[in-house]
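User: Can you predict the 3D structure of DUF4177 domain-containing protein? Sequence below.
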Amino acid sequence: MSSYASAQVIMGDVNINDMPEVKICRLVATVKLFSSEVTAIIDYGQEIKQGGKSALLLDAATGKRREFKSLVDAINYMEANGWEFIDSFATTVSNQNLYHYHFRRKEGGK
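Assistant: Sure. Here are the predicted structure tokens for DUF4177 domain-containing protein:
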């Protein structure tokens, strides 16, 4: 079982759990080629620049890009950190599958 830092969903230097105005976010995940490992970004309404760090999901302990063992691991991470799954869909861009998951801040959250 994975352990997660309580209520920390960090992109760059921003913890969206400390932003009460953010009620909905979107996790966009890609699966690494020839692997089940997943890399994710979070869209919470911020400006996202190509190659920028504003959307990179970072590990709270190490400050490095957070990677997941699977898509379900990413969903469980968000659920464990105060976000409730709403819906999902997939798209394909340049032969790369992108998995989009919408989350809502859980009741009683900030």
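The chain has one helix and eight strands. The first helix runs from residue 71 to 80.
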